[in-house]
Amino acid sequence: MSAKKKVLIIDDDPAICESVQAILDANGYKTATALSGKDGLEAFRAMDPDIVLCDMMMEDIDAGVKVAKVIKEERPGTPIFLLSVVGDATADTVGIYNAGFNGVFQKPVDFDLLLSVLAKQAKSG
Amino acid sequence: MSVSPADIFRTAGDIESFRRAITALEGDFDLDRAAMTAFGKAYFEKYPDRDHDRKMEEVRLGYELVRICAIEKMVRGLPADRKEVYRTALSRPASAGPAAEGLARSIGPQRLAADLALLSSALENIKRTIDEIPKGMIRERFAGGVSSLFNLLYVLKMKVRPPAP
After folding, report:
1. Chain B contact for A19, CB < 8 A?
2. Interface test with B, best of A85, A93, A110, A114 (most B CBs within 10 A)
3. Cross-strand bridge partners of residue A30
4. ipTM exceeds 0.95
5. Can you give the pLDDT of all 125 residues of chain A as single tens digits?
């Protein structure tokens, strides 16, 4: 049996972290959560996840971009997906697509789609 | 209806006072686009946001205030004995799974599925109203607030429709 894939969830809303975690845990992933970009980077280094799901607006309005840039510098092969309502507030002001995100999931998240994408990433990883 | 979350927010001393006042209305309060906008303005008057070094507790408070209102609209059409179960399940992520399992046993999967369809429909209506608000921080706070409710409905539905192996 292959080891569970590790997913790090970074979001400033504990309710989002816990609910996404519940869904991914039930679908066979090993998860960890962090409530800020800063804590997320610490968790990233400690956990060495296979996949990262990251919010945009946390301690800074563009905190997700900063997280993505650091992750792409430290471990360029780690897929990082944006989970965000970014289209509602900041789409024109932050460089989502230049920051190294592998994809964007608009909140509220379509979990059937997210789980499908994660399964593909897990197979190719 | 003339009761608005904005007025209640201005007079409530803390989030629990706000929760009690909103819950006591049994869903009988305004939550259309104008009410959401007025609520957002009242919230940002008290807790102005900024681009950097944001006050996370105030941001999270905003999400929670939105959820309190949304949940009351969602459970409005349900019997009283199940309202409280869903209030808890939608307020505390850790309780969603056990709540669904308990409901599946007590009311059966078919009635649970019907409840979840009603809750989903109400939440979709709220989201459509949020989408009418112009892009900006008020819309962000509402959209962010209700996002976890969609997630928790997914958790509840997983108990009706187990995930594929």
Report:
1. yes
2. A85
3. A6
4. no
5. 468 999 999 999 999 999 999 999 999 999 999 999 999 999 999 999 999 999 998 998 889 999 999 999 999 999 999 998 865 455 444 566 677 888 889 999 999 999 999 999 877 76
